[in-house]
Every structure is written in C-alpha cells, then in structure tokens.
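Priority: low. Protein: Kinesin light chain. Input follows.
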Amino acid sequence: MLLNEASNEDDESYCYRRLGMIKDNLGQYNEAIKFRQKSLDIDEKTLPPNHPDLAASYNNIGNVYRKMGEYSKALSLYERSLEIQKIALPPNHPDLAASYNNIGLVYDEMGEYSKALSYYERSLEIRKIALPPNHPDLAASYNNIGLVYDEMGEYSKALSS
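Result:
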C-alpha cells in the first residue's frame, strides 16, 4: 500500500468515526452504528489486530448498542475491546478501567447486580492506582458501586460506598 493510500484510509476512517459520534449525540443510533462500523471496517484492514484504536472502535459501537438497550451486542463489543486492551495496554491503564466500568453498566442495566458489582470493583481497583485521588472517575466508580448495593437492597453498603 502506498503511503498516500494509507493516509486517505486513515482520513476516511476518522470522518466516519466523527459522523458516528455526531449521529450518536443526536440520538440517531442506527445511523451512528453504520458510520462507526464503516470506520471499524477500515481500521481492521489498516491496523494491527491488537491496536488500541480498534478497542476504542469496539467500545464506541458498544456504547451505542447499550443506549439502544441491545445489551448482548453491547456486552460482546465491550468484551472484545477489553481483550484488545489487555494485550495492548499496561495492566493499570485508565482505558481498562473504563472498559470494566462499561461492562458493569450493561450487567447493571440487565439487573445482574453481582456481575455488575464485580466489574465496577475491578474498574475501581485500576482507577485507584492510575488516577489521582480527587479524579471524578473515582467518584463515578464509588457511585456505581453504591447504586448497585442500593438496587440489591444492601443500604448500609450503599451508604459506605
């Protein structure tokens, strides 16, 4: 492949990714998926199989499916993203924490609270190491854990989270 061709494909992927983000922000989820999938298709052809950008693409499509309530599709994409990140990133990278959190969100929305709690706790462990103690993502982790305990009726644990 010529250098210019790779550059054009990168630009095309970027444009589709941005269009997908816009459609997602507008709540036009089916269109968002189409654009994000086009970007992913290009990236799968041009990037190594464990490139962090691929993980981000899987994650972004998973986000849209989660918003649509298509939890099994979202979960599959989040898990694929996490698989890539475990290979491509250091073990305490904040993106790993975000992936664990996203999987927790899906399980939480499905009412599978013990699974959600497990993923939220793993996310929190990473965030405690990777982020400063006053980072808002830490607060989000504690909040998510507290909400799960609340949903499970374990109110004292919810208050202490």
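Residues 1-6 have pLDDT under 50 and may be disordered. The chain has two domains: 1-76, 89-160.
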